[in-house]
Design goal:
Layout: E1 2-5, E2 8-11, E3 19-23, E4 27-31, H1 37-48, E5 55-59, H2 65-68, E6 77-81, H3 82-89, E7 122-124, E8 127-130, E9 137-141, E10 150-154, E11 159-161, H4 179-192, E12 197-200, E13 204-205, H5 208-230, H6 242-246, H7 254-289
Parallel strand pairs: 4-5, 5-6, 6-7, 11-12
Antiparallel strand pairs: 1-2, 2-3, 3-4, 8-9, 9-10, 10-11, 12-13
Helix pairs in contact: 4-5, 5-7
C-alpha cells in the first residue's frame, strides 16, 4: 500500500486493478475491489489498520468485471454511476463467465465463475460529493472507456483516480468505449489536471506524458476504424489493425502478448460493430425477414 497524501492510498499488489483507499475520521472510502475474496479481506484489514472511522463505502469506477467481481467481498455500501447500475440490471445474478476471451484479468482466475454480483446501492447521474471528516471527495461521470465510467477527485489534495481512462504499458479496453468522449476527457485531464497526482486503475501513478501518449494512441485507433468504415469493410477487417497497435507495448512474455492481442481483437471488433455496423446489420435482418 502506497501513501499519496495523509489518508489517501493506492494498492497495486492485488489481482485485478489498482485500488484506492481514502481513510478519514468518518470512515473509509474504497475505490474498486480486488478479484479474490482473500485479497479483499486483506485490503479491508490494511485500511482498518490506518485507524479511520468505522464506516465503509465502495466506489465502482465502472462495470468491468476486473473491478466489480470482488465487490461483494468488501461487505459495504456500493456507489456507482447510474449507467453502471443499468449494466448490472442486465446481467445474470450469478457470474457465469464468457464464451469469448476479452483479454481481461479475471480470465486468469477461474474461481470468479459462480460469484454473485453485488449491485450498487447508491447511484448518481453527473456528480456526487462525499464529506467523511476529511477533504471533499468528488465522484464525476467521465464516459470514455465505458458508458458509466467515473473519476474520483480529492481537489484539496490534488489527487484524481481515473479508472481505465489511461492505462500504462498495455492496450486499453475498447469494446464498450466512446472514443470521442474518451479523447475529450483526456484533453481535460491534460489541460486542467496536470498538477494533480493521477492514479490509473491499470498501472498506478500516471505522468502527464502518458496522458499525451494515450491521446495519440486513441486517435490512431479512431482513424484506423474510420478508414475501415469508409470502405464499408467487414468487422473481421479490424484484425488488420492489431499488429500496428501492439507495437507500443513491448513484452517478452508470449502469454502476455496473446492477452494483449486478444484484448485488441475483441475490443476493436465490438467497437466497430457497435459504432459503424449496427444500422447495416439491422437492415440485413430486415431484408432477410421480408
Amino acid at each position: 500500500m502506497q501513501q499519496i497524501e495523509r489518508g489517501i492510498y493506492y494498492e497495486d499488489g492485488y489481482l485485478g486493478v489498482t485500488l484506492g483507499g481514502l481513510v478519514f475520521s468518518h470512515g473509509t472510502i474504497m475505490i474498486d475491489a480486488p478479484l479474490r475474496a482473500d485479497e479483499a479481506r486483506s485490503w479491508r484489514s490494511a485500511l482498518l489498520n490506518q485507524r479511520g472511522g468505522s464506516n465503509r463505502l465502495l466506489i465502482n469506477l465502472d462495470a468491468h468485471p476486473d473491478r466489480t467481481l470482488g465487490a461483494r467481498s468488501m461487505e459495504c455500501t456500493i456507489v456507482a454511476h447510474q449507467k453502471t447500475a443499468d449494466v448490472f440490471r442486465n446481467r445474470p445474478t450469478i457470474f457465469k463467465g464468457q464464451n469469448i476471451e476479452t483479454g481481461s484479468i479475471w480470465e486468469n482466475y477461474t474461481d470468479a465463475i459462480g460469484v454473485r454480483w453485488a449491485n450498487p446501492d447508491i447511484t448518481f447521474t453527473d456528480r456526487m460529493s462525499l464529506h467523511w471528516g476529511g477533504p471533499e471527495v468528488v465522484i464525476e461521470h467521465h464516459p470514455g472507456p465505458s458508458i458509466g465510467a467515473t473519476w474520483v477527485l480529492i481537489p484539496e489534495m490534488k489527487v484524481v483516480f481515473i479508472g481505465d481512462a489511461v492505462v500504462l504499458e498495455q492496450p486499453p479496453f475498447l469494446a464498450n468505449a466512446d472514443l470521442i468522449a474518451w479523447l475529450e476527457d483526456l484533453e481535460l485531464l491534460r489541460n486542467f489536471y496536470k498538477d494533480y497526482m493521477i492514479i490509473s486503475s491499470r498501472g498506478g501513478p500516471v505522468p502527464i506524458e502518458a496522458v499525451r501518449a494515450q491521446i495519440k494512441y486513441l486517435e490512431r485507433v479512431n482513424k484506423g476504424l474510420e478508414r475501415l468504415a469508409n470502405k464499408n469493410a467487414q468487422p473481421d477487417s479490424t484484425e488488420g489493425l492489431i499488429a500496428s497497435l501492439l507495437t507500443d507495448f513491448s513484452t517478452t512474455s508470449p502469454e502476455l502478448n496473446e492477452k494483449f492481442t486478444q484484448r485488441l481483437r475483441y475490443g476493436l471488433m465490438q467497437y466497430y460493430l457497435r459504432s459503424y455496423r449496427s444500422e447495416s446489420i439491422l437492415e440485413e435482418i430486415e431484408e432477410e425477414s421480408d
